[in-house]
Specification:
alpha+beta, 16% strand, two-stranded antiparallel ribbon, single chain, 4 strands, 2 domains, 1 helix, two-stranded antiparallel sheet
């Protein structure tokens, strides 16, 4: 018979419960991310003409404000 300390038994039991709760969540998260298309449309990528910072603005505006230097930028067609 294998002798095991009570605190080690509680720690192992707790670890098994945590793994049993986390595994379905991780597997579901993996399935969600697998089907997701992570491409970015070119119309949302902006280049600041003052500080040359490249940033993303998902609003379909003609003019955008640079998050780094707060200058206004006009989208080139």
């Amino acid at each position: 018979m294998v002798n095991i300390d009570f605190s080690l038994a509680i720690a192992l039991y707790g670890l098994l419960i945590i793994l049993a709760l986390l595994m379905p969540w991780l597997l579901a998260k993996r399935q969600i991310l697998k089907g997701r298309d992570l491409s970015l449309d070119q119309r949302f990528i902006w280049h600041c003409s003052v500080c040359t910072y490249t940033y993303i603005n998902t609003k379909e505006d003609v003019i955008s404000v640079c998050p780094r230097c707060s200058s206004f930028n006009k989208k080139n067609s």
